[in-house]
Amino acid sequence: MTILVIAEHDNAVLKPATRNAIAAAARIGGDIDVLVAGAACAAVAEAAARIAGVTRVRLADAAQYADHGAENLAALVVANAAAYSHILAPATAAGKNFLPRVAALLDVAQISDIVEVVSPDTFVRPIYAGNALATVQSADAVKVITVRGTAFEPAGEGAAAPIEALAGAADAGISRLVGRELTVSARPELTAARVIVSGGRALGSNENFHAVLEPLADKLGAAVGASRAAVDAGYAPNDYQVGQTGKIVAPELYIAVGISGAIQHLAGMKESKVIVAINKDPEAPIFQVADYGLVADLFDAVPALLAAID
Amino acid sequence: MKILVPVKRVVDYNVKVRVKSDGSGIDLANVKMSMNPFDEVAIEEAVRLKEAGIATEVVAVSAGLANSQETLRTALALGADRAILIETDVELQPLAVAKLLKAVCEKESPQLVIPGKQAIDDDSNQTGQMLAALLGWPQATFASKLVVNADKTAAAVTREIDGGLETIEIALPAVMTTDLRLNEPRYATLPNIMKAKKKPLETTTPAALGVDVAPRLKTLKVAEPARRSGGVKVADVAELVEKLKNEAKVI
Questions:
Q1: What is the pLDDT of chain A when averaged over all its residues?
Q2: Residues of B whose CB is below 8 A from A308
Q3: Domain CATH for B14
């Protein structure tokens, strides 16, 4: 049994979610190959080779993989799928984009967003915005799976595995990247942060959102998140959104500021180790999941909290 | 150009679902059902393209139980021109739906298929990508902006990705899945709901389309997630900081 994990990277740096997917692969058991597809991405392959549990890295370094377009990446994975019993990718925007394409081309089901490996053919995944956990069994010859990163401890460093070059497939030529507009932030990445300070609609404006939350986040070394309401109101960029339709996070400490706690938001953060809620409505649903709740006006409480932390 | 919009009947997003006590699934008896929210966004986008003179016809399609007709009528009331129901009582998984939609696409030859990015019941986020794969068409997932070029041979789509946005150009025909920020769906007005009753709704079956829809994944068990143990309310900021430092030890 050999498992293929598809690495996520930006041609320079391996994304941490890859380590969680490798950890899930280790739970399935068997040799683990990591596919690094990109352009001028040798450094990524070297980083992947040093992850504990990796048997071999397969490097497809070609221009048509530079932008990680789903069409070309899926074709490459399918062309090399015969050797594998399981094909895994992180359940990130990138993994969710290309992996179902792989599954359909192989004529197998995909198991999305697994949070637990029961056996090599049986997995647990959340449904209904995390309000239920389904245990599903696949009878397909190849199991195609996306892995919820926060459910698996990231794999650490190990001895360097060999790197083999892999020939690329032809460029499909039906899609091309025009450009990317990435949110610039000096803070930790949301899905990997140890502490997250998250704000909701109660912040009232874009200015308040940044002025109130960022000093606290900086003091705690935290990432800043947002509820969908705050994003839709334009207080924070889209990629700050925590929830069923945004990012799934599980930090050690999640501080929800002015967030009511709608089902869709809870689905994205209720696996956090400690949840703190600051809200002036004592009936807000967020208090039902919060370990520590403070009923107070956030505009008083957050500056006071900032002052009280030394 | 013709646009095909797949829509799904799901538990209303406001409903707090309950797991059946025997662990066989979710209790759907007497629960309010609605159109999947991402599909409302998809219908809205298709209707706006029609209003802008880019699309000529919007066809809504749904697969599932006979009562998915209600969801298709909603789509018609929102501005779709006609509807196709693929009726079956088999539990449909994304790969089966993608195959059914492929068969419909081969008959209807749309230039653009707009599914929602995911259904809020199974949370799979697969069908659009699988359909694009089966058709050999390009895909643009998690779209927050669509611009179709003048001769309707390509489109620029802005996608929501981790870390920000990216814009890709795809050749048409293509599949584009919607993210919530693509648009704000309109409400169906009463006159439009009445008119929708007269719009054509064709019914077919997986067998008539020649598609095997047998489920590939077997659900062994559905369980409630572990409940978080009840927390405490603290009196003030000082107590909060004290608890975080000494009890939870997270700061």
A1: 96
A2: 237-238, 240-241
A3: 3.40.50.620
